[in-house]
Amino acid sequence: MALPQSLRTSVTPPELELIASQQLIEIVPLISMERTAFISGAYGPLRPPNKAKIPLWMAVNLKLKKKCHIIAPEWLNIDYLQERLTRETTEPAFSDLPFRFAEISKVLLDVASDDLDNPDKLRSLLKDLREARQAKSREGLRELDHSELSLPNLCSMEINEIRPFFVQSMNVLSQIVRNPIPEPMMRP
Amino acid sequence: MPAIRRGSPPPFIPDDETPLEKLTRHWMNERHAPDILPAQEDLLGTLLDHLRRQSEVVQLLRGDPSTSEEEHIRIVLVQTEIERVKFIVRSYVRTRLFKIEKYARFITTNAEIQTRLTAAERDHASRHAKITDRHFHFSVLQSLPETQSHLDDTAIFMPPMITEPDNSIPVFVHALQNCPKITLPDGTSLEMEKGHISLTSYNVVQHLVARGEVELV
Questions:
Q1: I need a labelling partner for B170 at 20 to 30 A (CA). Which of A30, A39, A66, B12 fits?
Q2: Cβ–Cβ of B80/A153 closer than 8 Å?
Q3: Is residue B202 part of a domain?
Q4: Which domain covers residue B209, as residue numbers?
């Protein structure tokens, strides 16, 4: 089988994490390394204690070997997330967050929670945000028609989560529009 | 065909997009699109070459006993990246293979879709179509009445037996730039700004996907 059944209708969260891990992040290296050419570009040189920008996957690899500290991106702190949560719960629209915030924050909380300020509070804020946004996606289902649904500021992981249900619902709606049931058949 | 605004900007591909980022975008598009997208033979070739060169360097350094501890970490990182890129390449190729096998019979009769495949993919499609045809013929079709014994017979009450891509299914699009106006299935029009995300039918956005103005997410 060229593609397993589970991968045919959608992508999986680990695959989204793989894509998100290509984004650059700042670290404070604990080892030095010359500038090195990778397939995705050249990174380095690493010279402790100078900060450097490298892809997230590389930072995770070094972090697991205790060879660097990861600097949290500017949006991953309590003030920023608290402000977004307030907006999320008071305004009807989705607040703007980085497109892959769910993947990146999960990776960072998993491997580098000791580099973050108050990781437990961050976790609970992210969870609240997720729930508030999920509720909005469900509300969005009301707006669904056969033609188009705009979802500004929805994030990659959230899209993936609602995909199966939304796509199928829209499909059904467009079938109804395309082949309306003739009048007499609608009577019980 | 949705109307394209006069004087619309030329196909937009960000200049700073690396080959790997390009392939990642094509991989995701391929995964989400119902149809088979144009093959990216040159891009794939570039990346496969790069993968080979990186692997050779790693092999060389691995075999060298004077490689230091610091070098060792670099080797591990390069190796890790090789595996990441290989995963994307493999998944991309497998996704195409899956669609080619699914639509094999359709591909052999449709010249337009063939232009989107590589020579090897076309070959595979026709061989796959031949084998399944033979199998259907010997297992069922040969014992049916003449008028119903071909896969491309169009019986009135039956859905067609040849699978075609269903381009009306909805997809999530993410605009990478301001897009020209498109006409939606209900007849209204939509002008997507950069960053706009929308769920709509694939056939109204497929020309934007082909031009790289939107990506499927």
A1: B12
A2: no
A3: yes
A4: 170-216
- B80, B102, B124 - which closes a domain: B102
Indicate the Cα dihedral angle A142, A146, A152, A155, nearest 10°.
90
The one-character DSSP state at A74 is T
Residue closest to A102 by CA, chosen among A38, A6, A20: A20
Structural domain ending residue among the three candidates B64, B87, B102: B102
* This prediction's pTM: 0.90
CA-nearest residue to A143 within chain B is: B199
Whether residue B199 lies within 8 A of chain A, CB to CB, comes out as: yes
For this complex, say whether ipTM is above 0.95: no
Alpha-carbon distances, residue B103 vs A68, B110, B122 (angstroms): 49, 10, 11
- B201: chain A residues, CB-CB within 8 Å: 147, 170, 174
Tens of pLDDT along B4-51?
Answer: 344 444 444 456 799 999 999 999 999 999 999 999 999 999 999 999
Asked if A174 has any chain B CB less than 8 Å from its own CB, the reply is: yes
